[in-house]
Write a structure and sequence with these properties.
Radius of gyration: 25 Å
Structural class: mainly alpha
Strand content: under 5%
Number of helices: 3
Largest sheet: none
Helix content: over 70%
Number of domains: 1
Distance between the termini: 82 Å
Length: 61
Amino acid sequence: MSKTARMVMKIVGASLALAAFVCLLIGGWHDLTVGCCGVKERLRQKFSSEYDDYADEDLYQ
């Protein structure tokens, strides 16, 4: 194989790999967002203050 054909095959292979990654990312976008929101909620529950459930605005009116 000539150098030009080898370079073209590498470019085509890299383009197909990138396209496959983009398709996987788009296909799993919903799962990624659900997982991200779940992690944020668990962290909020774990590191929240014990006084966060009080309505402080109503106390000072």
